[in-house]
């Protein structure tokens, strides 16, 4: 058993007869009244996100998880197939159990949290940044680097990302997977 002081991003807990992953949390100590923790929980079975508030010192049932490195192989309908980097076993996960599946390209290395009680995969943690090629966007104009204006661009995985005006088709960009936003242009 853990308490609210043990809450951290990525912690998997059992709550309301389901397993949830903590996406966001905020410890709040108001000037009047008791402290509490405001959380955003994502169900690992349904993908549903809900907001919940725990009072300070509340006991929570944490799930013992093990992190393993996997490589993304391919997408088959709504199933995503992964291969364990150590023993080459394969698993498949539904699209709703992934946080940002649209930014995942074949061969990408990810960390999968596995429940040690029954060996079921709970969640997939992407690397902080992914490097993708821009496949479609409007042409950039010379000198458009001084403003904060953006335009939509499609990357090689099919995801749409807002990028600065100077980005062209064929450019390689880094994308922040947590926000799903453009981070920087890579040198070619």
UniProtKB/TrEMBL annotation:
Pathway: Protein biosynthesis; polypeptide chain elongation. GO terms for cellular component: cytosol. The keyword rRNA processing does not apply. Residues 130-185 form the Elongation factor P C-terminal domain. GO terms for molecular function: translation elongation factor activity. One of its GO terms (biological process) is peptide biosynthetic process. Residues 67-122 form the Translation elongation factor P/YeiP central domain. It comes from the Bacteria. Belongs to the elongation factor P family. Involved in peptide bond synthesis. Stimulates efficient translation and peptide-bond synthesis on native or reconstituted 70S ribosomes in vitro. Probably functions indirectly by altering the affinity of the ribosome for aminoacyl-tRNA, thus increasing their reactivity as acceptors for peptidyl transferase. NCBIfam families: efp (TIGR00038), PRK00529.1 (NF001810). This is Elongation factor P. It comes from Nonlabens marinus S1-08. The gene is efp.
């Amino acid at each position: 058993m853990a308490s609210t002081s043990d809450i951290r991003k990525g912690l998997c807990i059992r709550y309301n007869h389901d397993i949830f992953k903590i996406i966001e949390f905020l410890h709040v100590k108001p000037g009047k009244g008791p402290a509490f923790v405001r959380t955003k929980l994502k169900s690992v079975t349904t993908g549903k996100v809900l907001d919940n508030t725990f009072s300070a010192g509340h006991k929570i049932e944490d799930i013992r998880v093990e992190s393993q490195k996997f490589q993304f192989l391919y997408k088959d309908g709504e199933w995503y197939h992964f291969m364990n980097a150590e023993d080459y076993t394969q698993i498949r996960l539904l699209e709703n159990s992934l946080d940002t599946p649209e930014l995942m390209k074949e061969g990408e290395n990810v960390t999968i949290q596995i429940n040690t009680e029954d060996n079921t995969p709970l969640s997939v943690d992407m690397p902080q940044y992914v490097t993708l090629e821009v496949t479609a966007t409007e042409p950039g104009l010379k000198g458009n680097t001084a403003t904060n204006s953006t335009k939509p661009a499609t990357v090689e995985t099919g995801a749409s990302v807002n990028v600065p005006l100077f980005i062209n088709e064929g450019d390689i960009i880094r994308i922040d997977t947590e926000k799903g936003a453009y981070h920087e242009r890579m040198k070619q």
